[in-house]
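Name: Chemotaxis protein
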Amino acid sequence: MVLPYLMGAAAGVAVAALCAAGHSWRSRAHWREAQEAQHAQHEEALAQAEARVLAAQESAAQEHEALAAQIESLRADLAQRKWVNEAMEAALGAERARSAEARQRAERIAGEAARLKQMSATFERWHEQMISLMAQNHDMHLKNQELSSIVSHVLIVSLNASIEAARAGAAGRGFSIVAGEVRALATRSQELSKSYRDSLNRNDLITAATFQDIQAGGKMIAASLASVDSLTQQLHAQLEAASVEAQA
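Structure predicted for Chemotaxis protein:
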């Protein structure tokens, strides 16, 4: 009874052991499958992560290239702007130099215009003085004519006195001497009057020629002054236009 029981127990133990071994083998197989599946998931996740990293790197490289292109474009634009600014500064400097030169020229022209105005005023004064001198010469001519008429009358009177003294004989001898002296003085006065008239005539010629020269010089100065004023106005207009352009 015991032996069969022991044999049955042994058989049960063996069966249990076999069952346990089978279960252990299935558990290990299942664990390996789980490990392989997890490993596969890990590899897939790693591959996806690597793909994302590569995509991110490619995107970063593209962005870097685009940024580098933008930087180069900005540098080129900045260089062009710098060149344009330098050209504008150079042009502005040249324009300022021309404006300064034009201002200096305008100042010189204004100075010349002022001197021409002074000369014009001087010529006007000379013109008035020459007119006054010509009037004085005319007045002296009238006075000399009157003096010449008086001298001629004195000569006639002295001649009549000499005739009357000759008729009176010895009694009129003294009067005859006085009449002769008066006639001699009248003759000298007549000669002086003629010389004075000749001098006045020469003065008239010189005065007339000088008067004409002064008139011609005054007209030339007036024409030059008008030309200078016109040129000054043109320079001022150019300076104003240049100033407006520089401000714009």
